[in-house]
Amino acid sequence: MDTVLKIDNLTKQYGRITAVKNLSLEVKRGNVFGILGPNGSGKTTTLGILLDVINKTSGSFSWFGQPPGKGVRKKIGAILETPIFYPYLSATKNLEIVAEIKGAPKENIDQVLKKVELYERRFDKFRTYSLGMKQRLSIASALLCDPEVMILDEPTNGLDPQGIAEIRELIKQIAKEGKTIILASHLLDEVQKVCTHFCVLKRGTLLYSGSVDEVNKGVESVEVMSDTPEIREVLEVYNKATKIVEESGKFVVTLVEDTHASDLNAYLFSKGITVSHLLTQRKSLEKQFLELLAESDNA
Ligand SMILES: Nc1ncnc2c1ncn2[C@@H]1O[C@H](COP(=O)(O)OP(=O)(O)OP(=O)(O)O)[C@@H](O)[C@H]1O
């Protein structure tokens, strides 16, 4: 798979504040890559550096295997902040102005408006749009040059649930068409629902980078109960269990990867133990994220 973005040891210092610290990452073509982190973790700073609007202190990055520069920038559509559209002009008129500034073909306007589902409202004034529609128009404007990569900073901030769902659907749709998407978010749920890959930043430091599927798969913990007292000894010798914790009569058994509650049940049954309670507790991305953040506090 092609590498679209490679970041090596990127650091940004604002006086005594280190906003980004020795960050190294790789984004492959077709990824929907989430940069996840709490407020102030360095997401916007990182995106700003990648877009050449913020100067790095040290380190390097390359787009499409090339050092940053004008030729590369054309392949990237970005929304770091809501672009300023003229409130008294229509979507079409606003995009005509954007196309003029960016040197994008005006023929693309109808097509991008259809993509973001604003075509029907294209002649209405921008000021009559809902927040979600305004955000969709921003995405349309970033799509005008038909970029290979889209960069979105907190794309659903401030939107209502319907607006959020629409933007997420749109992002997935754009990704399906083969574009690489890099988005910053402080919302786990967003990353889980939209991204294929993600990294976790905290105070500018990379805590994790990997695929969402891998994490979603995760390891399973199973809650198990039985009236047979021997269950404890039988569990202790189960070679697929990595951890056993007893909690008020229940055993919480953490299993090795690719082992499931059904395997545990079959094992116990083969040892003559019938269970009265069996519940899978998959470790959610949220739990893992919170653990990661907590671990880094203790480090
Ligand atoms: N221009 C600046 N001058 C000084 N410090 C800055 C500047 N911009 C950002 N910072 C600091 O750098 C750190 C990272 O900020 P950044 O905005 O990149 O984080 P973020 O993860 O995008 O957070 P948020 O989600 O709140 O925007 C913070 O401590 C912030 O206060």
Automatic annotation (TrEMBL):
The keyword Nucleotide-binding applies. The keyword Transport applies. Residues 5-228 form the ABC transporter domain. One of its GO terms (molecular function) is ATP hydrolysis activity. Pfam families: ABC_tran. It comes from the Bacteria. Keywords: ATP-binding, Nucleotide-binding, Transport. InterPro entries: AAA+_ATPase (IPR003593), ABC_transporter-like_ATP-bd (IPR003439), ABC_transporter-like_CS (IPR017871), P-loop_NTPase (IPR027417). Belongs to the ABC transporter superfamily. This is ABC transporter ATP-binding protein. It comes from Fulvivirga marina.
